[in-house]
Design goal:
The protein contains 13 helices and six strands. The protein is α/β, with parallel strands linked by helices and 317 residues long. It has two domains: 233 residues, Rossmann fold; 62 residues, Histone, subunit A (Orthogonal Bundle), CATH 1.10.20. Strands 3-2-4-1-5-6 form a six-stranded parallel β-sheet, with helices on both faces. It catalyses: adenosine(37) in tRNA + dimethylallyl diphosphate = N(6)-dimethylallyladenosine(37) in tRNA + diphosphate.
Length: 317
Amino acid sequence: MKEKVLAIVGPTAVGKTALSLALATKFNGEIISGDSLQVYRHLDIGTAKITAAERGQVPHYLLDIRDVSDSFSAYDFKVAAGRLITEISGRGHLPIIVGGTGMYLASLLKDFTLGATTDTPVTAQAQQRVRQQLAAEWQALGSQAMWQRLATVDPDAAAGIPAKNRQRVLRALEVWQLTGQRFSAQPPLTAPYDAFVLGLNCQRPLLYQRINQRVEQMVAAGLADEARWLFQQVDPEAQAAKGIGYREWPPYFQQQASLAATITAIQTDSRHYAKRQLTYFRHQFATHWFDLLDQPQSAQLEIDTALTQWLRTAPPA
């Protein structure tokens, strides 16, 4: 019998934290952070990390478990979260994954094994760099040239993918570039858990407004000092330093950018990331979407009803 796992996903500033606390209380849950930056100690403001008071309401895991000089890969998350799911389920409680790092959730919920060995872990940042590079090359070179590149390194994959299928061509090239393994040789993805993926979203103008306000609140709360401390500990190439909300600060510290320009850069990067998150969760998971900001009472009722029905349904073997 597969263990049941609830995942709450979506962009920043849509209410994931508040919902996770409410659902954990209602459905006897324990919360596992699925955020790639909240694992780091002292990175509290820029990651919108849950407060100590909120942690006291419900058990939380995978927060503050790494120093900023350490790395933490999707493979590390998969192993740690898998162990916690077994422990939480063994207590008769519901494991709840909360966070927006898509690659982490894919590694766990879909048994995604891209480069997932202890010798060559692939970080979410590395995957994003390769993905952006390949997208730029597709734009510059065109579909036929990119498909021909795939045909050279993985003819079996190319034979089954039309040259104009951008998503699948780039995905196969991404696997090759990150792991050195042919996409056609990758084992099929499996579903080790009976997962319910709950996505939060809202109208795009409101989302962007809330993101902009969230960044301003972070700056008012001392984000600049937190980022300055971070760059005193690590160089800009460290995994922790590449997170949105931190990587935009060095020009300001070097007096090459104003505070206003830095805030705008963080807001812009955050909005772009939110858009990528929504696209990823739509394509990678059978996500159940809800808007708690537009009609909170009816949306909450729909969520409670859907989860109650899911929890009563026997999981597949």
